[in-house]
Every structure is written in structure tokens, then in C-alpha cells.
Amino acid sequence: MMTYASSARQPDPEPRPTWSRGAERPADGREPGAASSAVNDSNVVPITAAHTARQGAARHADTSLPTPETPAKGKKSTPTAGKMRADALRMLGCVRIATVRQMAQVITGEGSDGRSYVRRAMVELAKLGLAETNGKDGKHQIWNLTPAGQKALADGNELPPRPKAGTGAKAVRAGFGPHAVAVTDTILAYTDTVLGGRREYLTDWQVEVNHAIKETGLSFNTDAVLTVPTKTSEVRLFELDNGTMSQARLAKEVWDYERYAGHRVWEGARGTIGGTYPFWQRHRYTRSKTFPRLHVILAGKAEHLLDNRLQALTAAVQGITVAVWANTLPRLQRGEPWYEIGVDDPHRRRSRYPEAVGR
Questions:
Q1: Fewer Cβ in 10 A, N or C end of the chain?
Q2: What pLDDT digit, counting tens, does each position of 54-92 carry?
Q3: How far is CA 168 from the centre of its chain?
Q4: CA pair distance 48, 258, nearest whole angstrom
């Protein structure tokens, strides 16, 4: 059992999402009531493997990867070859990089048998010039879309717009494939254990999302961003360390989020007093009441070493003024609780960063 300093505590479990992409509103046109659907961050439900995410009563333009029906005895539930190719394209459009193992986990319900079906689908997509493999994670080939594959998704209006999204091919060729594969494992584990199903919310993820403030020179990429709104925030941020960073570097990346959240901009018409506002709330997450929670996931090492890194990170970010939850990938995959190592405190954050200068 891992022991933490008093600065770290297990937080209340994750809130349910209010509604998923594609879910229609009720017939009367009103938003679901707070008691029935929109759950505040302080009013949450337990995280368990059986947790079922709320779905809308009807679907419109649903681009999710549906859960295969449980097959009758002796029968297969594998999608048709064409549908499997389409599902593989959609998944790669969301997570950018994946192995056949990961795609089979989502697209089929047949374990190792499903991998052979997915493998054949990927060979066909490669022949069509829509997908390619540029490296391996151990003995598993890593697949990504080609520019033609991205264009096919865009032309079919299969995913929400993802401006400037790369294919991931350069990263794999450069040797960064294992990190990207671990990010995909994180997405699948979180979607499975927290959101209640690997497929339903897959299209709500984006990877390698840039956050930058030109005036200060601050710029960093968030490994994954989940757009499933709660009552207080429209996204959740995910940062993964695959055991390749020093502890100091990892802590700096977490503190970068506070620096980003703390930057304020001055606004006001000429001749008026004006005022200052958080940059993120004015120009990035305009529908959020609080700065999005940062989830830090540790992977790439033996579990006891990941536990040591988690304790070190807890100490290194003590006093941070943004909400930070941390976990290891193995614990996340088992559906175990997160550790809260940072609490959102906008008032203390404002006193820590200087005010923007007006005209």
C-alpha cells in the first residue's frame, strides 16, 4: 500500500459528464436539470468498472464507435470488413496513433481473434493509401493515418474539426511511438473505467493540443484533451509521463499549467477604466467557470517505481493553485481512485501573478 504525505489525498471520484457529443437535448428543448444530468464537480458518483455514462435519449450524426452486441453462442459479432475499416479510420483520427491490439480492444469484442480482423482491415487501408505503419512498440506495429486518410475523414464529416492535426508519422519514425501508444492506452483506460465505455466518448478526445500565450512566450502541448462538459468546465486535460522525463522536468510541466492559468489580460474600451480577466477564460475555455482539471498519468516503469514518482511529484507541486489529479496507468486501468495533489484556488493564483498593464 502506498503512503502519501499530508499534502496528497484521494479526491472525490470523477463527475459524470452532462451529455456526450451527438446526444440531443430533451424534446422540450430545455437543458437537463441539475438533479438529473448536469452534475457539479462537488457532487459526484463513484468510479467503478460498472459506471455507466449518461447518454441522450436520441442521437444525431453519431460518429462514435458502437459497442458490439454480445454474440450468441458460437457466433461472431465482428463488424463487416467495410465497417471495420471505417471504425479504424475514425479511431486513428481521434487518437492519432494506435496498435492493432488497441484498435481491436475498441472495434471488436473478440480478444485475440479480433486482432486478425483488424490486421486485415489495416492492410486494406494501407493498400488504399489511407493508413500506414512507421514503427513498432515492442513487437506490435504502430499505425497512423496518412494525409489522404485524414482528408477522407474530413470529407466524410466523420469527426469534429481538428485544425492542424498531424498524422503522428514523424513522431513514430523519430522513436516517440511508445509515448504515443501509452497516451492511447490512457485514453482507452479512462474512457473505459471512468466514462463507462471505451467507444461512446472516443470522438470527444483530441491529442497533442497546443496551449500558448504569445505575449509571455509560454507554449506547451497537452497530451490529450477530453471535451465532455461538466457544470464547471468544458474540458479535462491529460499529461502523460512514460518514464522518460526527470522528476524536475515533470514538475515543471505541471507548473506550466499554473502559469498558463495565472496569466491575465487587460480589456476595456478606450477612455474607460477597463479591467483584467484570465486569458484562458477569455480566449480559450470561454464556457468554463473554473480552470480545467489537469490529470497526470505516470507509466513506463514498474509499479513500485511509478509509486515513488507519484510521491515525488506530490511534493514537487505542493502549493500549486490549479486542480491536479494524479494516477499511474496500471491503477487507472484497474479503475482505482485518483490522488488529488493540487487544488484550484483562483484567488491565491491571482495574487501570485502580476496584473496586466492597461493602456
A1: N
A2: 223 333 344 455 554 444 454 455 568 888 898 999 999
A3: 16
A4: 30
CB-CB contact of 318 with 343 (8 Å): no
Task: Give me the sheet containing 205-213, strands edge to edge.
Answer: 205-213, 218-226, 236-241, 294-298, 324-328, 339-342
Residue with cell 477564460: 281
The per-residue pLDDT for 189 is: 94
SS3 41: coil
- CA dihedral defined by 72, 77, 80, 81, rounded to 10 degrees? -130
Q: What is the pLDDT of residues 107-151, one digit of tens each?
A: 876 555 678 889 999 999 999 999 999 988 888 899 999 999 988
H helices present in 203-300, as ranges: 247-262, 279-283
Distance CA 136, CA 199 (A): 24
pTM score: 0.78
Cell readout for 79 is 463488424
